[in-house]
Amino acid sequence: MPKYSNPRKTWRYTNEFKAKAVQLTYLDGVQIKKVAETLDIHPFMLSRWRKEYREGKIVADKRHKVTSIRNGEKELDRVKALEKEVARLKQENDLLKKWQRYLAEQHQSDLDSSRDMDEK
Fold first, then answer.
1. Are 59 and 20 in contact (CB under 8 A)?
2. Which long-range contacts (CB under 8 A, 24 or more apart) does 63-68 make?
3. CB neighbour list of residue 58: distance below 8 Å, 6 or more residues apart
4. Cα–Cα dist 7/53, whole Å
5. How far apart are CA 105 and CA 109, in angstroms?
6. What confidence tens digit (pLDDT) does each residue in 70-94 have?
7. Do residues 25 and 39 make contact, with C-beta atoms less than 8 angstroms apart?
8. Which string of DSSP letters, residue by residue, matches 14-72?
9. Model confidence over 3-29: pLDDT tens digits?
């Protein structure tokens, strides 16, 4: 088994980020799994942060507190809209790639048929 000389990359999150993530999970109608997905972190990590938040190990900055459900819902709605836009753009990009492939094949078949005509 190979020995790795470089240590594995560990992501470090600020207490402010952790506190905001935890506060989002406490909003009504918001699931931990969705918040974790949105923030691109594992739901278990978010659950651990919630525990540390309850124990007082993670302290929220009072100036940037998520105070209303509307703010959290607006943010999640914004993220959902952006994800929908990304999906649409990926689909559009795939369609353009297919169209480009089709045109290249047509061009190649035209070249092949013109060669066949020249040979006769």
1. no
2. 64/16, 64/20, 65/23, 66/20, 66/23, 66/24, 66/27
3. 15, 18, 19, 22, 49, 52
4. 29
5. 6
6. 566 777 888 889 999 999 999 999 9
7. no
8. -HHHHHHHHHHHTSTT--HHHHHHHHTS-HHHHHHHHHHHHHTSS---GGG----HHHH
9. 556 666 667 888 888 998 998 888 878
